Amino acid sequence: MRAAGEKKVTTSAGRNELPTRAPRKRAGRGAARPDDADEVGLDALVGHAGYAVRRFQIWIFQDFVRTLASVDIRPTQYSVMTVIGANPGLSQMAVAKRLGIERARLVHLLDSLEGRKLVRRIKSKTDRRSHALHLTAQGGLSLAKFKQLAAEHERHVEEKIGKGNRERLLQILAGFT
Amino acid sequence: MRAAGEKKVTTSAGRNELPTRAPRKRAGRGAARPDDADEVGLDALVGHAGYAVRRFQIWIFQDFVRTLASVDIRPTQYSVMTVIGANPGLSQMAVAKRLGIERARLVHLLDSLEGRKLVRRIKSKTDRRSHALHLTAQGGLSLAKFKQLAAEHERHVEEKIGKGNRERLLQILAGFT
DNA sequence: AGCAATTGTTGTCGTCAACAACAATCTTTG
DNA sequence: CAAAGATTGTTGTTGACGACAACAATTGCT
To answer: Which nucleotide is closest to the Cα of A130 by its C1'?
Structure first.
């Protein structure tokens, strides 16, 4: 519901400023006073995996949100629906554990999705504490659309870091999924 | 939880009924329904770079916080001090731009660091709007210690994904730093 | 001088991880 | 079987964080 920005972000959104890194001289210590951020040396920060990953994560997140803005689905919502769609009848606990999110957080997520008639909580008969999660008919249809857009987002990632690098990345991080 | 032989991704577009596992601990559920998160298929989620990166980012973040817990320094604080240490005299705007954080947010960050006598805001004489940021003597000493711990954290990353993979990762994501 | 832009600051809003506490409901065990 | 313990969904709080909006002081531009 934001969309107020209406920035000139095209749907392709790739190749904006990747190779900016001008091989300029390192910011000289002492007298030099780099005012432009482009000239600021990072020193020890480069070489930290966490920093690079954080920046990349932010970029990916924003592109995902932007690409799926028309359907108003955020990454976490998408992951929840995907898991439920692939494993109907899961309990909230199971979904939370699988996605590594707090079950407390999943409550709000599902409230929202259920309010939009995408997901249903059905009381389990075998365990009256838990809910069996299912996609609604509309939810299934919608998820198909979401997946299309998510695939488009994935193409943006390819454009940004290269197809081979993306696959390599997935391979390296396969242990965390 | 590595989900080793996980190849239950039946590419046939239809439903992929999970391979019937013998019901383990809990009383039989009647229908084949995975209760344990370990058995839950992710389907389309695997293959999404954003998901893998997010999980990895969370892991890295937590390890960083844990490794630097003794000095009570969080990733963002570390990045701010590193940049200031490498480029003394920077303005808040320059630091914020370089690290990709909001200048509004940097205010609180610096309030905290200045309160701990690690950095100083010195009024610029050339531009009385801005502050020149410097590490205090204690801040410089502390940063050296922080860097040691950060290097230890980085070793944890190596242990987790492998030395070569870590370097490849940094290489792939170099454009985002 | 006048007006737009920048800088630091304050504040709000929404997302997210991490806990804590609780009622309802299993499961275990004495 | 009944009490004790554990689990599930829920509500609430805390704190870090990104995104904005508005503002005063200051600078730059014309």
So the answer is: D8
